[in-house]
Amino acid sequence: MTAINTTPANPAQADCVSVDLGDRSYSIHIGNGILDELEVYLAPVIGKARLFFVTETTVEGLYADKVKAALKRGSIGNHWFTVAPGEGSKSFATFEKLLNNILDTGIERTDIIVALGGGVIGDLAGFTAASLLRGIGFIQIPTTLLSQVDSSVGGKTGINAAAGKNLIGAFHQPKAVFIDPNVLSTLPLRELQAGYAEVIKYGLIDDDNLFSWLEKTGASILGLANSNQQQEHQNQAINFSCSAKARVVAEDELESGKRALLNLGHTFGHALEAECGYDGTLLHGEGVGIGMVMALDLSERMDLAKPGQAKRVADHLKSLGMMWSAREIAASLSAETLLKHMQKDKKAKAGKIGFILGGIGKAAMHYGVDLDLVTAVLHDSIEGLPLTGSEPQ
Ligand code: NAD
Ligand code: GLY
User: Fold this and answer.
1) Beta strands 156-161 and 164-171: pairing type?
2) pLDDT for 323
3) How far apart are CA 88 and CA 23, in angstroms?
4) Helix axes 208-221, 230-251, angle to 10 degrees
5) pLDDT value of residue 391
6) 266 catalytic, yes or no?
7) CATH code that applies to domain 191-383
8) Cα-Cα end-to-end distance for the chain
9) Which residue's CA lies nearest to atom 2 of ligand 1?
10) CATH of segment(s) 11-186
11) Where in the chain is the domain with CATH 1.20.1090.10?
12) Residues of the chain under the 50 pLDDT cut
């Protein structure tokens, strides 16, 4: 874990993380109050382009006035398109309507789409930008912790299909990402916790010091501790996460290797999400949290992780009031059905499911895993059986 300065309160001194992709490189600006001075941040990125904002009703109600005031101060031309909040908006129907509405305004190739919202809006607006006029510029202004630490960075965009989540989309990198952690003050705790699961993920992939730091600061990051350092810890967590993701994306933009590690916990998590029906019963980050515990449990059973590591992560989730086992979603889940979902996973190759396994900070991709072991892990999580062992000190 490399040291990063706490983001200063003065937005003019916002931290900047680079995503190095040659002529498609861009900066992630992180600073409290960026939205209050958005015109200053936008100016060097957009030139004279008009901005076409895509947002949803909740975020519009909370932040559109502030953003519009900044656009007015900067004399920046803008149009707004608002969809319903929630995963349901990553649909063909919403995508088609959005494209047609934007085309009706006479958008041109020099105009820029701006996503103002969480991961749903980022994915939908990004795919809209990738598709309109064969691809136009795109800016991300993420407003959930999940989108600030993960989905706004790296250029994965898309919508859901009847056959599964995120199956239609494109890699389309943004021109810039503007993160104002102040917007997290209006985010419900459950959404904050779901985003926090993705922060833990970076520690589990290749940074055990980050995970140890999160064990100490997680409660402060989520506002559950009597701490006057919440903002400082939140900003550090966002910085560490964006830096980790930027490094991986720069190395493997199109996911031919290392980037697949960012899906740690997702093979299990996506199966849980699919079974729950994307209706809010289980949030993406909640599935990832439970999935990471399952991945560590499987790793221990395959001697790829020291005993006690799954319990250590589960204990951390529990200490923050987060789910750690499938039992907490519904007792009626079936290991066999979840395994069927996993066999449809995007990472499957020649019918073999891909699992990201290994001890804390040492994740690697594995194929050809014994499915009886996977079923046993799923079964024990559905039963909510306690994880055992403790890591040697
Ligand atoms: P989301 O966009 O649905 O937002 C979650 C909820 O928070 C919504 O109800 C929204 O209205 C509300 N909200 C947003 N900002 C708010 C704010 N500041 N204050 C109050 N409420 C606010 O969900 P999400 O968790 O941000 O994103 C999940 C989506 O991201 C999924 O579709 C997932 O597939 C996708 N995703 C994409 C990538 C990627 O690399 N592209 C990575 C991870 C996840
Ligand atoms: N969230 C996984 C990725 O961006 O690759």
Assistant:
1) antiparallel
2) 97
3) 34
4) 140
5) 57
6) yes
7) 1.20.1090.10
8) 20
9) 118
10) 3.40.50.1970
11) 191-383
12) 2-12, 392-393
